[in-house]
Amino acid sequence: MAEVYVPPAEVEEMELYHAKSWITKYVFSQDAKVIAIQYSTTAVAIGLVGLVLSWMMRLQLGFPESFDFIDPSDYYQFVTMHGMIMVVYLLTALFLGGFGNYLIPLMVGARDMVFPYVNMVSYWIFLIAALVLVSSFFVPGGPTGGGWTLYPPQTITSGTPGHSTGILLMMVSLALFIIGFTMGGLNYVTTILQARTRGMTLMRLPLTIWGIFTATVLALFAFPALFVAAIMTTLDATLGTSFFMPAALDQGVLNEHDGGSPLLFQHLFWFFGHPEVYIVALPAFGIVSDLISVHARRHIFGYRMMVWAIVIIGALSFIVWAHHMYVSGMNPYFGFFFATTTLIIAVPTALKVYNWTLTLWRANIRLTLPMLFALAFIVTFVNGGITGLFLGNVVVDVPLSDTMFVVAHFHMVMGVAPLLVVFGAVYHWYPLMTGRMLHEGMGKFHFWTTFIGAYTIFLPIHYLGLLGVPRRYFEMGETTFIPDSAQDLNAFITVVTLLVGFAQVVFFFNVFWSARKGKPAGHNPWKATSLEWQTEEVPPGHGNFGPELPLVYRWAYDYGLPGAKDDFVPQNVPPGAEGAEGGAAKA
Amino acid sequence: MKILETLMQKPWTAEQIAVDNTEDGFAVAIPPSKLGLRFFLGAIAVLMSLFVIGYSDRMVLSDWHPLSEPWLLWLNTAVVIVSSVLMHLSLVAAREGRFEGLKSNFMLAGVAAFAFLVGQAVACNQLIAAGYFAADNPANAYFYLLTVSHSVHLAGGLVAWGRVALRIRAGERDIAKLYESVDLCTVYWHFLLFVWLVFFVLMLFT
Questions:
Q1: B79 found inside a domain
Q2: What's the average model confidence in pLDDT over A534-544?
Q3: Which of A233, A340, A360, B35 ranks highest by number of CB atoms within 10 Å?
Q4: pLDDT of A453 over the 50 cut
Q5: How much is the mean pLDDT over chain A?
Q6: How confident is the model at residue B1 (pLDDT cuts 50, 70, 90)?
Q7: Nearest CB partner across the interface for A575, out of B17, B63, B179
Q8: What is the pLDDT of residues A316-344, one digit of tens each?
Q9: Nearest residue of B to residue A182 by CA position?
Q10: How far, in Å, CA of B133 to CA of B151, rounded?
Q11: How confident is the model at residue A580, as a pLDDT?
Q12: Residue A200 distance to chain B (closest CA, Å)
């Protein structure tokens, strides 16, 4: 039957929920900006737990047999929890829940998300998921230590730390996270598609929004695989079903399972796991495109190609998952297929790198803090991507699999690179969120320490991997093919890790200190064109814009427009007003 | 919205600027809630498809012993079909401006869905009483997995149905205000009917 709904000729004013008390304004808030800060604060808090866990691992690797409080079980629990926390609870939540909530309504010209109540519930479920995860540290047996990939049969077989309560709490927490994320994700995609202000076509959206949009679509369709895996593992562990659990000896006794397929779990996990890489990377791609354009005072090179690349990468990310399973055993033709798709995905990715570089070519580059972080991201992403080409090939992957080379690769491409974007984005949008600038000196110290530190940590780990140092080993013991110098290198890496970790204190101090003492930012300190900088108030108030929603007349990259008074023309400046007094500055 | 046409636009050209300035902010001509529901159904479709893939992967092994589905499942299937039809009649009544038709069909659709859930619970209990435990055979485990996962989603739908039913009981008679909710419930009901039919046929013939 035909649709009866006819879209309005003009975008209707959405009915905003107005908080009636302090509690509904700041705690159970339905304002996307408050929810963004709640998401970010929670993600960073649990991320700091993940950071401390990485220090514990490094202490053990750098100085084995020196710390009584780290035994093998602890070590595996640290590895597992660090991985899951950083990938899911920090990066996914921060990019989509944090930046997504803050930037989507502002950048598309909406007053808020389309389903504000659902958005609020999304955050609270995320918080509960994080608390359930953390609670596993305090239950008998502690958190699961089965590795962040949670492969059965190991995770629920006795002998593995946290094989009873710990793994169940992990699965419950993941299921809650996915439910919460789905609520938020529906908001993000629907707001982008159906609540843009007049004139804001999809192809006028800043690339940040394209990145967040595509990543959210990926997440909506990839997380169900993890959800399925979590439910079925939980049933195997509690009801004794055999979805994934095969018959096996458990402490010398035959277990009560029969015929389950651990490989099925791996397929489900990586059907989620590989898109997850791009769930983190695509928002980073989008954000870094905008940082480069604004701080190089130049339109992004090849905007259309950048959008296509984001969409193509997103689509391809669903057909490369089994490259994580080359050593699990598969038909060689499948290996060939997944190696091929993996290499193909490098094409649109490389295209993005070329376009960032060409945007910088002969641009008016300003080495501001966001730009420094953006440049560092490009270098790091290229480095991490190139080692990915090694690992995407079956014949090279097999000897490198389960070595520290893999650890170094994914930390560069999925840990360091996105975090550099997070920092760049915070330095870029902090003036919008607080009305004040972050301290430049502290920022530069933070940048150089983090950038050089990250390379000092992870470049040597590549080398260790090439030497054959395996990952997930509590200690090397007597391993003849690994030289003693590897241990010295491990000790060096540990010291640098601790130093770089502590250097982040400067960043957090800067964030808190500048909120009160920072230089006032005024309106649009970076002279950017996108709508979030064209609000009446800074920081933007409830409803984001003034009595009228802004009208959009141009794309988000009008920098250096011939005849314009300034070197930038905001999206809401009408045609013909570019050269007028107050044209560019009007908004 | 034509995706390829959209992606080919050159937003920096004067011709495109003239076209773009008439944009109303809607990518597709449906309300946000309906688009949100479609994305949600997409996510559920992936979830349910993965259950089916797992089922198909497992059923080919020799230790798979199909259980004999209780006759009650046929009755339940008929009830859920009736529920979906009633929900659709409620939507038709809304389109034709007949409030009483909307109300009676909508209420009965919810009652039928609730009856279906009770019937599914009884069917599961009958199987357990007959000794078909989840841990005994993968076919049993998948039966409970598919049945319960479908029922949980329908129960979620009943929560949404309950909110609308309460509004109607509280005196809401404005069809324009009820239309969107009834429309969303209908889409959801039809989707879950389709999912159940796929599950039922799969379990029946394997």
A1: yes
A2: 94
A3: A233
A4: yes
A5: 93
A6: low
A7: B17
A8: 999 999 999 999 988 889 899 999 999 99
A9: B40
A10: 19
A11: 64
A12: 6
Do residues A299 and A324 lie in contact, with contact meaning Cβ atoms separated by under 8 Å?
no
pLDDT of residue A263: 94
What is the domain range of residue B55? 33-204
The structural domains of chain A, with segments of one domain joined by +, span 27-205, 522-587
Tell the burial category of B62 from Cβ atoms under 10 Å away from its Cβ (0-12, 13-18, 19+): exposed
Asked whether residue B13 is assigned to any structural domain, the reply reads no
**Lowest-pLDDT choice from A175-184, A251-260, A419-428, A523-532:** A251-260
pLDDT at site A164: 92
How far is the C-alpha of A310 from the C-alpha of A375, rounded, in Å?
A: 19
* CB–CB contact A243 B21 (8 Å): no
Q: What is residue A20's predicted lDDT score, i.e. its pLDDT? A: 85
Q: Residues of B with CB below 8 A from A264's CB? A: 54, 57-58
Of B10, B25, B33, nearest to A197 by CB-CB distance is B25
Report the distance separating Cα A362 and Cα A359, nearest Å.
Answer: 8
Q: How many inter-chain contacts (A to B, CB under 8 Å) are there?
A: 165
User: Rounded distance, CA A216 to CA B80, Å?
Assistant: 33
Query: For position A259, what pLDDT does the model report?
Result: 87
* A-chain residue closest to B141, CA distance: A241
In this structure, what CATH number is given to the domain that contains residue B156? Answer: 1.20.120.80
A562 phi, psi to nearest 5 deg: -60, 135
DSSP alpha helix (H) spans, A21-115: 22, 32-62, 72-84, 101-108
- DSSP single-letter state for residue A469: P
- Partner-chain contact A198 B25, CB within 8 Å: yes
Residue of B nearest to A228 (CA): B47
Q: Which helix (H) or strand (E) holds A254?
A: strand A253-254
Say yes or no for a CB contact (<8 Å) between A10 and B24: yes
Report, as an integer, the average pLDDT of A151-178: 96
Find which of B8, B15, B24 to mutate to test the A interface (most A CBs within 10 Å of its CB): B24
Would the CB atoms of B43 and A5 count as touching at under 8 Å? no
Residues of B in contact with A4 (CB under 8 A): 95, 179
Nearest chain A Cα distance for residue B173, angstroms: 19
pLDDT interval class at A11 (50, 70, 90): low
Nearest CA in chain B to A5: B30
Pick the more confident residue, A178 or A257. Answer: A178
**Residues of chain A above pLDDT 70, percent:** 96
- Cα–Cα distance between A61 and A55 in angstroms, integer? 10
Residues for chain A: how many in total? 587
Q: Tell me if A261 sits within 8 A of B59, measured CB to CB.
A: no
Contact A239 B135 (CB under 8 A): yes
Residue B124 lies in a domain: yes
DSSP state of B130: T
Residue A249, SS3? strand
* pLDDT range class, residue A9, cuts 50, 70, 90: very low
For B87-103, letters b (16+ CB in 10 Å) and e give bbbbbbbbbeeeeebbb
Q: How far apart are CA A93 and CA A89, in angstroms?
A: 6
Substitution target from A10, A118, A194 for chain B, most B beta carbons within 10 A = A194
Q: What is the rounded end-to-end Cα distance, in angstroms, of chain B?
A: 41
Give a yes or no: residue B24 inside a domain.
no
Distance (Å, whole) CA B151 – CA B169: 25
From B76's Cα to the closest Cα of chain A, the distance in A is 25
Count of structural domains within chain B: 1
Chain B nearest-CA distance from A29, in A, is 21
